[in-house]
Amino acid sequence: MTHDLARSLRSFAVPPAAALAAAALMIPAAPVDAGAQATSLERRAAGPILERLDSLQATLAPVSTAERLATADDPARDRVLARVGEMWKTEMQDLSDWIGRHPEVGFEEHRAADTLSAVLRSHGYEVEQGVAGLETAFVGTWESPAGTEGPTLGVILEYDALRGSTGAFHGDQHNAQGPVAIAAAVAVQEYMVREGIPGRVMAFGTPAEEVPPPPKATMYRAGVFDPADVLVRSHGGSGTSRSRPGFGSCCLNINAVTYTFHGRPAHQRQSWHGRNALTAAVELYTAVDHMRPNWRPEASIQATIPEGGTAPNVVPERAVVDYYIRYPDEVYLEHITGMMEDAARGVARATGTEVSVENYGRYRDGISLGTLEELVWAYAVELDAPERDPERTRPSGYEETGFVSRVVPGVGVNVHSTTAANHTHQMLEDGLSEIGHTAFRMDAQIMAAVLYHYVADEEFRAKVDREHRVLSGQFDRYLERLDEAYADELSISVVAPGNR
User: Fold this and answer.
1) I want to staple 254 with a disulfide (CB 3.0 to 4.6 A). Which of 7, 20, 64, 363 is the partner?
2) Alpha carbon distance 51, 66 (integer Å)
3) Are 162 and 210 in contact (CB under 8 A)?
């Protein structure tokens, strides 16, 4: 980094770390090795594909490329990052805190969506609200005065709060993600104006990250993300990290499934006239617990019974069990889901009830790119981001549904912003204090750096696009090999193309 940028960053309480950058980046290129997969069967199935991806990483040299870009004497880049810091300090930090103190749960984020839309309009964006049939989703689009023939840069904004037992609260720091993204987007668009660079910047307002069905999947199916050439987002957390290149998810593959039992009401004094839906729901809950030893230990299955009747002296005619079914890969996940549906139908027969099953939310593996992950890490080192863990994590895509990252290259940025676990009130407090404020500003600067290099450096852009093209081209083959491996080992074949 130049001395001018170092002085500028000091004014935002950022100690420059150029002296540490070279040492921290003396890490070999990130192989897509077996550690990227969670189970031995996954590793066996992925073997030939990972060999090809390893060869690609060696060709792209993401670590040395990132080091070169992050440590180069680049006044234009320095001006962009300084502008991000200025915007955060004078405008976006207060906006982040305001959203944090006015929490709204998923699909009800009207004030947050309207406020973020208004801020985008003030910076020259045309904003469409209610996209993809989602009332609190929006898309802001800015077009360069030099024309739109260049790249379309995308940022993802989130703003929903958690559902807490004492009310909504921003215990996952989504209050910051909109302001962070806007600061990065505006700084880069101003650079494009100065340099006469054609293209567009698009801001995707994505509600209800915490509530299935996942809105990003809905927006993906509606083609909302189709114009983007690259996407970046941020998220708070307890460490500063990066992912391995390859296929994976932050939170395992998930099926969100409800089992609704329908019975017949009766007074409890004559309960034999009724058919107790709550009994059926409890039987399913118990049956699933008893089935756990039959599943691979990596499975994580969580449930609640949100509906179980209205009065103790009335046989419940309706009860609902809501499950999140998780597994590291989507093939075995479907096997578990099928067994649970069989159990639900068996319970319904045993209790004289009927059951309807709805898979109302699917979260799947995404694609992580070494070119972008290493660039994010290089700038985290350069900015001296706290609590850096040099060990690369399992591939995670860059957004929770996985589907979007399969079709648009991108990266998620997460600088250490809390000393607490996610989904806690302490995480909210950290997000409103110096630890969060500093991290969020770094998030925005790193996001801006990624967008800057993508639009300014044709060679880097070509590497990103090539890596994504190869990985997305191998993804279906990876699922096919998983299906074959499970068929050989367990005599099951469970994934139809429609589930993918």
Assistant:
1) 363
2) 22
3) yes
**Range 3-249+371-479 classified under CATH 3.40.630.10:** yes
Question: CA distances (Å), 147 to each of 197, 203, 408, in order?
Answer: 8, 18, 22
Q: How far is CA 206 from the centre of its chain?
A: 11
C-beta neighbour count of 21 within 10 angstroms:
20
Closest CA to 175 of 189, 164, 160, 162: 160
- 3-state SS of 214-228? CHHHHHHHCCCCCCC
Q: Which two tokens stand for residue 70?
A: 């992050």
Determine the Cα–Cα distance for residues 406 and 399; give it in Å rounded to an integer. Answer: 10
pTM over 0.85: yes
Question: Beta-carbon neighbour count of residue 296 at 10 Å?
Answer: 15
Instruction: Give the C-alpha distances (Å, rounded to integers) separating 243 from 53, 181, 246, 366, 431.
Output: 15, 20, 9, 12, 23
| Helix, strand, coil share of the chain (percent; to 5) | 50, 20, 30
Cα angle for residues 330, 332, 335 (degrees, 5° grid): 115
CA distance 300 to 71: 42
Token reading at 17? 């770390």
Angstrom CA distances, 264 to 96, 201, 461, 494, 499, stand at 50, 56, 62, 34, 34
| Number of residues assigned to the chain | 500
pLDDT in tens, 353-391: 999 999 999 999 999 999 999 999 999 999 999 999 999
Q: Output the six-digit token pair for 243.
A: 């992912």
Give the CATH fold of the 253-363 domain.
Answer: Alpha-Beta Plaits (3.30.70)
Distances (CA, A) of 156 to 65, 181, 439: 25, 7, 17
Tens-place pLDDT, residues 21-76: 333 323 334 444 445 577 888 888 888 888 999 999 999 999 999 999 999 999 99
Q: Which of 373, 402, 393 is nearest to 249 (CA)?
A: 402
Handedness of CA 361, 406, 119, 7 (dihedral sign): positive
pLDDT tens track for 69-112: 999 999 999 999 999 999 999 999 999 999 999 999 999 999 99
Question: Which tens digit of pLDDT belongs to each residue from 443-489?
Answer: 999 999 999 999 999 999 999 999 999 999 999 999 999 988 888 87
**Residue (of 444, 423, 369) closest to 237 by Cα position:** 423
Q: How many angstroms separate the CA atoms of 288 and 290, rounded? A: 5
pLDDT digits (tens, 9 = 90+) for 328-350: 999 999 999 999 999 999 999 99
Rounded to whole angstroms, how far apart are CA atoms 236 and 250? 13
What's the pLDDT at 250? 86
